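ok trying again, last paste got cut off:
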Amino acid sequence: METEDTRAIFTAVFAGSIVLANVLAAKLTWIELPGLGGVAVPAGFVAFGVAYLASDLLVEYHGKEYAATVVNGTVVTLVIAYALVFLAIWMPSAPFYGGQDAFVSTLGGSASIILASVVALAFAQHLDVRLFANLKTRTGGRHRWLRNCGSTAVSQGVDTIVFITLGFAIFPALGLGGEPTWGWALASIVAGQYIVKLLVALIDTLPFYVVTEFVKQPV
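nice, full thing came through this time. structure:
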């Protein structure tokens, strides 16, 4: 497969995974961590891992400028997706439709969570793009595992801290929905979710190597 053939594929996978991850985040799943016990994480964590893999591949083959443009476009796409969801919630239900309450509870997230997810996405993904490009330059294109794991591990940590802090503490304290969570409870949520995301970042090194072996680098 030629490099240019991957542009649309990686872009679509990134944008689609981000939007889907935010939809799947409506469900909390339980992950057992050996020696650490269980932790509740949004079910979209795998989709987020796919998105980070796609963004790294975008930088690898198409450069940080194009990848940054894709991130900006995806942020806009996510905002539009949320707007369309709330439009669907606002639309009157058919007289025989009995699933409105379930529809609202599943897709109608609080303002604090929605705003936090958009802010965290914009900040962390741009950081990931810059870190990946910087590591690739500093290593002269060698050590693919380092730029893949390193950029994702750092940016996933930033994403987790920004999202949890804004969505569960600061925005609720400002009256944007929900009760604020502080202190150890907040820190434990951040730590638990980051550990799971870090494991996903390590696992996605394998598909990164597979793709970079299969797709030709530009000459």
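cool. DSSP finds seven helices and two strands in the chain. The helical segments are 6-24, 45-90, 100-107, 111-138, 144-173, 183-203, 205-214.
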